[in-house]
Write a structure and sequence with these properties.
Oligomer: heterodimer
Order of helices and strands of chain B: HHHHHHHHHHH
Shape of chain B: flat
CATH topology of the largest domain in chain B: MetI-like fold
Largest sheet of chain A: none
CATH class of the largest domain in chain B: Mainly Alpha
Number of domains of chain B: 2
CATH superfamily of the largest domain in chain A: MetI-like
Helix content of chain B: over 70%
Distance between the termini of chain B: 53 Å
Number of strands of chain A: 0
CATH architecture of the largest domain in chain B: Orthogonal Bundle
CATH topology of the largest domain in chain A: MetI-like fold
Strand content of chain B: under 5%
Number of helices of chain A: 13
Structural class of chain B: mainly alpha
Strand content of chain A: under 5%
Number of strands of chain B: 0
Number of helices of chain B: 11
Amino acid sequence: MLPRHAPWTAFAASSVIAAILTGAIGASPFVWLLIAGVITLGATTAWSAAVEGRRKATDRAMTLLVIGAFALAMLPLLSLVYTVVSKGLARFDGEFLTSSMRGVLADGGGALHAAVGTLTITLLAALAAVPVGVLAAIYLVEYGKGKLKRAITFFVDVMMGIPSIVAGLFAFALFALFMGPGVRMGVMGSVALAVLMIPIVIRSTEEMLMVVPNALREASYALGVPKWLTVVRVVLPTALAGIVTGVMLSIARVIGETAPLLITTGSITSTNLNPFDGRMANLPVFVYEEYKFPGVPPEAYIERAWAGALLLILIVMALFLAARLIARRYGVEIRR
Amino acid sequence: MTSTTATEAEATTTARSHRRIGDRVFSNLASGAGLTILIVLAGVAAFLMAEAWPALTAPAADLPGGEGLLDYVWPLVFGTILASLIAIVVAVPMAIAVALFTSHLAPRLIAQSVAYLVDLLAAIPSIIYGLWGIAVLGPATVPATEWLADNLGFIPFFDGPASTTGRTMLVAGLVLALMILPIISAVAREVFTQTPKGLQESALALGATRWEMIRMVVLPFGRSAIVAGSILGLGRALGETMAVTIILSVSGAITFDLISSENPSTIAANIALQFPESSGLDVNVLIATGLVLFAITLAVNMAARAIISRRERKSDR
């Protein structure tokens, strides 16, 4: 049997060797980590094969490979968060959060118009998607049977796979057919986002409704409560925390969608609060356009893009965390 | 006696019809919401068709490129499939590894935070992946791709010349892989944790090492779920727009060269790039390409769901 500290000593030793090699060829820390990992793998496997036999050596090798692959998958996430935070903080100041791009040609300006626009568009989308989604989920769980239920379940899955840009094209086509192809409105973006939100809301609500124990429903029926009152007064409150979590997660998913908003809502430099009146700025498109089409000097625009990206990621993470906290504090636990 | 039963009967009838109205309204509301789903989906197909129709029936000379719709769409389809294939090839093994780590290798405490971190990967907006790809990953791959072009240039994938900015199909594929990894990993993790404990423990009792147990019990049990999850991830990669739009330097060439600056575009990225400036028939052409994308992702997703439902029917639940 190899001593318990064997993999760690192997890693320590290979780190030193890798550091020497990397220093010799002058490569980045990432290459150092890679070489250290490979040497650890080889050394531990060989050592184990000599002491414990081939089968145990394979077991150790595969364990190390899995851990290595996991680290490889987590590294970009860490790099991404670090990049956005470090590059975004440069312009993440009061001016950025309180002013729009109206009349701004180089430095200065902010993303207020974009943030407000994003909130307006997403709120409208949620207003449309949540009632439809929750009611459809209630239908699927409480009332549905037979062919119609199977068809709706199947098509909810289909809807889940619609690419975001196709949803945007649909919203555009819908409004273009009635109002001409040049129309750009905030509410078009809301329609596209609603199409993307509905299947997510349905799926998560369905799961939450199915977690509610049947005994609760049957107790309610036994007391003479009609079915609809049972759903409204017994099932929904029990599942409410989970439903709220699902809604918040779906909002977090669509709030960062750029493609559908790029082709429906467009963008402007000043703040527009009316979703039915012309273009409306929004955060993801703001980030995209500041980065892709910088003016002069480009640094000012790119800095604004990163600050906008930081704001966007903060909003998404806040929604994510809030959803998890609500689920943990108020939710009904699924015991496996 | 009869009077009491009569009033009793009356009371129950009024109570029942009172109940029925509320029930009827509510159940109709719920069914209506369910039908809305079907209507919306039918609407998507119908409206897209309506707006794409002018492009489908226009003479070839009027379309951008002047060679007809098929000629216009084919390079885009090629680019879409190439980028997605790279993403799948990279993402599936890593997703299985991450799922195995969470379900079998990590201690309970770490496993939960790990699952949370992987789900966080899924929540990050695609445009931020695009920015990171072009600003960090692209330049980071330049030394490696230059080495590949110099030493392995005979392989068509590494033909070169290596791009100096890193805005290559390879980087786009890698970023796509990162974006679909959480989806595949979540599906795989779900099925790995549901592997029957009895089977796992009997393998261990017969003297198998942990890896042998995983190889003989867990992986075969999860095989169709992994395939279905991968196809779901493929569907997501096919439709991904912003990351590719920002990262890829497009030249329209149909090539397998992964490390140069001459790349085909994808359907979604092409729409994002051209749409804001297009008018007239060009808009209809772009919507027609969107229809093609919709059809492709539809087929891919239906295949995934078919595999999942076939597996659920086969297993004893």
